[in-house]
Amino acid sequence: MGRKGISQYIPQRTCVACRQVRPKRELIRMVRIANGSIEVDTDGKKPGRGAYLCKNLECWEAGIKGNRLDYTLRTTITKENREQLMKYSKDVLKESKDGKNS
Ligand SMILES: [Zn+2]
User: Fold this and answer.
1) Could you tell me the distance, in angstroms and rounded to a whole number, from the CA of residue 86 to the centre of ligand 1?
2) Ligand 1 centroid, distance to 54 Cα (angstroms)
């Protein structure tokens, strides 16, 4: 007992902004919904084309303001949508600050 040698499969995804591969649960999924706008998929279960971003404001800014998300999800983010996502990022990302000083 106890020696199973299982290598637990951890799904990994790539952040569209910094291109780092990370375990899926360390990333936030963005999904393109039917009308072409992008929503944050907090459960990771929404249907549709998805893209991932680190829980890191720099990546959100690069992804959202820098058009990486538009490109990956083959849509055009409206100004309102962009603002909505950035607002969301500020709410979510402040909780998961790493205490990383630079
Ligand atoms: Zn990233």
Assistant:
1) 15
2) 4
